[in-house]
Design brief:
The chain is of the alpha/beta class. It has 8 helices and 7 strands. It has a 5-stranded mixed beta sheet with strand order 4-3-5-6-7. Strands 1-2 form a two-stranded antiparallel sheet. Helix 1 packs across helix 2. The longest helix has 15 residues. The protein starts with a helix and ends with a strand.
């Protein structure tokens, strides 16, 4: 196989949920396409890498240079609710289902001894300031129902537990043990949000 094609396949295969077989099909389709799709993809990717950054407040990706994302700028989102999630895909899932209308905070991972993820690796440092500055009265944990998710939830609660007048809750029924938000349908996610339990 051509070394350049092999290198491209290896890069695609490193993406989440893509194996070498799927990566090979994607590369083959792109290289044989005559409509300019490969060049458009490359240009869009280069543009995104050059301009998109995490929001300094919540971690959501934005193209506003040094500025806040759409959720942090939107005054209608300042309803006193802050939903803590693992990553951006969880934000997209919640937005698609339209079950949450407050603001988000992306941790950027979960505590894990196996993976070597420590508290300093997570986006936790500014949480207490956000709660105070944005008049947050409810923290909603929408983390995976796994050992790592529960460990992370308890750690985050211990860090911000001294904040007065803040209620903690977590998603209720419908989130199976070991489940990720990505795999829940909108109805199940809505039930889990509406029936969230206090902590």
């Amino acid at each position: 196989m051509n070394p350049k094609i092999e290198r491209l396949i290896k890069q695609f295969a490193r993406l989440p949920r893509l194996g070498s077989r799927a990566a090979s099909r994607i590369v083959l389709a792109l290289l044989q396409d005559k409509t300019g799709r490969a060049e458009n993809l490359a240009n869009a990717l280069l543009d995104a890498v050059a301009t998109i950054r995490p929001c300094p407040n919540c971690g959501v990706l934005t193209d506003v240079d040094g500025g806040l994302c759409e959720f942090c700028r939107d005054p209608s989102r300042a309803n006193g609710q802050l939903c803590i999630v693992r990553d951006l895909s969880d934000v997209w899932t919640l937005e698609k289902s339209a079950v949450f209308h407050g603001r988000y905070h992306i941790l950027g991972g979960l505590l894990s001894g196996v993976a070597g993820t420590m508290p300093t690796d997570l986006n936790i440092e500014n949480l207490s300031d956000r709660i105070k500055n944005e008049n947050i009265h409810e923290i909603i944990f929408a983390l995976p129902n796994t050992v790592e998710g529960k460990t992370t939830q308890h750690y985050v609660m211990s860090v911000i537990s001294a904040t007065p007048d803040v209620r903690f809750s977590e998603l209720a029924s419908g989130v199976p043990l070991g489940g990720d938000l990505d795999y829940l349908d909108d109805g199940t996610l809505s039930l889990a949000f509406d029936g969230r339990r206090g902590l």
